[in-house]
Amino acid sequence: MIKNNVNLKTAIKLTPFLFFILTALTGNGQQNNISAFKFKTVVIDPGHGGKDPGAHGVYSLEKNVALDIAKKVRQLMENEMDDVNVIMTRSTDKFIELNVRSEIANKNNANLFISIHCNSSPEGIAETANKEKGAMILVYGFHRKEEQMEALRENASIYIEADYKKNYAGYNENDPSALIILNTFMAKYRRQSILFGEILNNQFVNNDGRKSRGVKEQGVLVLAHSAMPAVLVETGYINNPQEEKYLNSDTGQNEIATSIVNAIKIYRKEIDAT
Ligand SMILES: [Zn+2]
What we know:
Elements: H1 2-25, H2 27-36, E1 41-46, H3 62-80, E2 85-88, H4 98-107, E3 112-119, E4 135-140, H5 149-155, H6 164-167, H7 176-207, E5 212-218, H8 221-224, E6 230-237, H9 241-248, H10 250-273
Parallel strand pairs: 1-2, 1-3, 3-6, 4-5
Antiparallel strand pairs: 4-6
Helix pairs in contact: 3-10, 7-10, 9-10
The structure holds zinc ion.
């Protein structure tokens, strides 16, 4: 009898614990997982800034064009998606290190990181520059050195950072730790980054009637440490006189900003549905 009593007491004590385990394993737990995901923060990163002008055309600098477009994206987001926070890595002409940009996104638990840039072809502002035109979207991923012209140009920012040797000490493409970072990024965020990139690419091509070189995977440092889906948007060739005009015009900037915001809307719907 006494022994049975003890067992009964133990069973009564254990019941709430078992109930907790069961509810965690069944329906309630699943529901919590679903409602836990909410698309609520986007980080917009205008490329370059301050002492780093980026590429240039005849009369304009990449850093200024990128900031103008980023501000238009923020304004549109505030008007049309006011349930999503928009954080800018810079809203003035200020130099910010590449690793600080991804830190800002990580600290704010952003759901998406969009870095805005202009492309530039190696031949400079010659008539031949007319050959290169259109948008391009970069995602961090496997790359061959000869195929990552844009990444090398965008990564060059680190060489004017005061502490680049310290901050990027681990950056060596042949180092196994670089592969670990890459693998972590690839497993978690590569698919979603490409998904967003393709949606945005469709907007540029189908809505704006623009040429695009599509979504490419390159070793872009500003995306490497982002703990979320991340893309770098090359909005057009600033060293192509025709595109420089488009990139500096209100029409061009509004078109690009609208395409980015439309892509965010479509992307949010698609990932909510999965
Ligand atoms: Zn750039």
